[in-house]
Design brief:
Elements: H1 5-12, H2 15-18, H3 28-40, E1 46-48, E2 53-57, E3 65-69, H4 89-95, H5 97-101, E4 113-117, E5 130-134, H6 137-146, E6 155-156, E7 167-172, H7 181-186, H8 192-195, E8 199-208, E9 211-220
Antiparallel strand pairs: 1-2, 2-3, 3-5, 4-5, 4-8, 6-7, 7-9, 8-9
């Protein structure tokens, strides 16, 4: 689907910033959401004022979208994410799957959709954003093989994905409901306020023997390795 002309034109005005070196302006996403989307929606596709987030088509990939809070939340290290009153942005991101599907010839199967947040040292922008996109074919194969070995307590995933040795947990249900991956990760850490920023966090849809659910993945980021590594922005699984 071709993006609406008004969105394309406005988004184009940010091209020099978005493709500039990461150190050039780490607040580009915040400026887009705060200065433009919160005022007139475009270049975002939508703004959910009740849940405090906007949906923006990423310039990278054919169907990748970013869920970006409309409040200033720097990233996974933000103390705001440890507040149970903060909206469950991962649950919101899963509910926005239709935006991704609209750019593809077929809807992504449940176990082909992924939501990823990069660790503080593995990102270029200082505004929280969840990458919503296709899972890579390799990652999908690994998780399909390991799905029924993932339990309801955090444990190492048997196989590596894109060089990551993830720890994983199973979540049951069609939606994430009240399960907040940020809070679930924080509960495993000795000092969440200090340690959250070093972690990647990924949510992938799953089909377990007993029904639908999710596999949540996390690891301590190595240099240059983000949670986004499990995704395929060309969406090969749909071609």
């Amino acid at each position: 689907m071709t993006p609406p002309r008004r969105v394309t034109a406005l988004a184009a005005s940010f091209l020099p910033l978005l493709f500039a070196p990461a150190f050039a302006d780490s607040d580009v996403l915040w400026k887009i959401v705060h200065d433009r989307c919160a005022v007139q929606t475009a270049p975002c596709l939508s703004v959910n004022t009740a849940e405090h987030y906007a949906m923006l088509k990423d310039l990278n990939g054919i169907a990748q979208f970013l869920l970006i809070p409309t409040d200033k939340i720097t990233g996974i290290e933000s103390p705001d994410l440890l507040n149970p009153a903060t909206h469950n942005f991962f649950a919101d991101a899963w509910a926005e799957q239709g935006d991704v599907d609209s750019r593809l010839p077929h809807a992504i199967p449940r176990d082909g959709l992924s939501l990823a947040v990069n660790a503080q040292q593995a990102r270029s922008q200082n505004q929280l954003h969840i990458h919503i996109d296709c899972l890579s074919t390799d990652a999908r194969a690994v998780l399909k093989a390991d799905a029924d070995r993932v339990g309801t307590d955090w444990a190492p995933l048997p196989d590596a994905i894109a060089g990551h040795q993830f720890t994983a947990i199973r979540v049951k249900g069609e939606t994430l409901g009240d399960f907040n991956p940020f809070l679930a990760l924080a509960k495993t850490l000795k000092d969440p306020a200090k340690d959250m920023g070093g972690h990647n966090l990924v949510v992938v849809g799953a089909n377990f023997a007993e029904g639908p659910g999710f596999i949540v993945l996390t690891d301590v980021a190595k240099p240059g390795m983000g949670g986004e590594d499990v995704q395929d922005h060309s969406c090969a699984i749909e071609h």
